[in-house]
């Protein structure tokens, strides 16, 4: 991941840039993203999935990290985009993202959001519950458009990940329960402004095994078989969701094919067995594309030694820019950017600066001797950090700097106190 390796450079180098210099130039906390890394991941998707298998498509799950510049990068890589809100959709529109390549998700899309999607000719709407069909039909009729949809199926599978980021288990707010599918299908066929293309499932996030995908494909194949048998419906598209896990601390990294080969093989196998035409297979990874492309830089301030207990090292950010440790107990790895060659022989706890005891970024981190003013680099913060950040305690959000071939540029400006009071009356 860009460790300099050499002894002559003592600062941590990320994507060709000196992180201590970046901290000086832009201030901290600072989100830093590597465009090179993002493009590398998109390249892998094209090489190992889209070009490897016929009838495949990949969309980027933009909830992981979205700005106008990110939308432009995804567009230039030729991937589609998954959005889950009017705000994500609006960002895509404003970045001139091709709307036919946008998939609109959500378990409770509002009428306004659906109207924005329909007016702008969004490529697919993924329907989460039966009454949503009526709402889409009503709006589509008003605009005289026939909307392409997929039905999100809840396959009822418990996968191994944090329970807050499981989505495909039976007891879930997401998707159509297996027991209701045929009733929903019949309703779908009765509507004039709705064109059903197929099915979607999403099992959860930060998944590190591929077996649950295989099981889900079998369940979907069964639905495809029955839909054909009962109604003569030919499934044209099967969207297998995202969720591919990445290494944060000790986990082993998985390449794309670890997930996608078994998915494709299982779809092919089942289609042959049931005599079905193989549908277009869609994947929608978010974290896998951007997670490792991001780091966050902080400056160390307060160092509090509690005798015989522990040392709290406070940084100038915390749970506002990275809520994942406090929300999910997520673990992160970090180093001191300005002491990269010094031995890490102290154990400290990295605390944030906000008014919550739960505002801890890293428990029991091994670092060299820490001093106020040192720069801490937390790794793997590209996904679900900036996108889940908040203004608690009325703190402005950090800037986002994008690195490309050794050059840095701001893609999101640092918020100011003026931004904080902008909408106050
Ligand atoms: N497709 C759908 C329908 C989704 O709901 C999600 C994520 C994805 C794709 C992309 O999942 P990914 O490939 O990024 O795992 N805030 C949580 C993660 C929530 C994920 C929600 N849905 C976290 O920080 O771990």
TrEMBL record:
Keywords for this protein: Amino-acid biosynthesis, Decarboxylase, Lyase, Lysine biosynthesis, Pyridoxal phosphate
Residue intervals of the Orn/DAP/Arg decarboxylase 2 N-terminal domain: 37-290
Record field: catalytic activity: meso-2,6-diaminopimelate + H(+) = L-lysine + CO2
Enzyme class: lyase
Residue(s) carrying N6-(pyridoxal phosphate)lysine: 63
Chain residues that bind pyridoxal 5'-phosphate: 243, 284-287, 384
InterPro entries: Ala_racemase/Decarboxylase_C (IPR009006), DAP_deCOOHase_LysA (IPR002986), De-COase2_N (IPR022644), De-COase2_pyr-phos_BS (IPR022653), Orn/DAP/Arg_de-COase (IPR000183), PLP-binding_barrel (IPR029066)
Swiss-Prot/TrEMBL cofactor(s): pyridoxal 5'-phosphate
Its biological purpose: Specifically catalyzes the decarboxylation of meso-diaminopimelate (meso-DAP) to L-lysine.
Assigned protein family: Belongs to the Orn/Lys/Arg decarboxylase class-II family. LysA subfamily.
Protein name: Diaminopimelate decarboxylase
Gene it is expressed from: lysA
